[in-house]
Design goal:
Blueprint: E1 2-10, E2 18-27, H1 36-46, E3 56-61, E4 64-72, H2 81-85, E5 91-99
Antiparallel strand pairs: 1-2, 2-5, 3-4
């Protein structure tokens, strides 16, 4: 399963109205469920390791014991800290520019 978190921000000072999308792509087939992404996210936010505070969530699938679901909360700002610390390269980040 692959999931993508998409976040848009406007650049008000540009001549043309443009939006920049920061994308975090999650490849659940590479995820080992270590939750390093969640720990790094929560530490960036609150300076504590708190899985419940993370804006990325990793859940074990009930009927598939070795598979995980990766989701992002609406508060995720695609900072990329989860991508940086994922030891399995299950997360990737890209920037896409699009004229509106």
């Amino acid at each position: 399963m692959n999931f993508t978190a998409v976040h848009f921000s406007t650049f008000p000072n540009s001549k043309d109205v443009k939006k920049s999308a920061l994308l975090i792509n999650a490849d659940a087939s590479k995820c080992a469920g270590c939750m390093t992404c969640m720990l790094s996210c929560s530490f960036r936010l609150d300076s504590t390791f708190n899985l419940a505070a993370a804006r990325i969530q990793v859940r074990k699938l009930v009927n598939h014991p070795n598979e995980f679901e990766i989701t992002f909360t609406n508060d995720c700002d695609a900072c990329g800290i989860c991508v940086k610390y994922c030891p399995y390269e299950a997360l990737t980040r890209q920037r896409a520019r699009k004229e509106v």
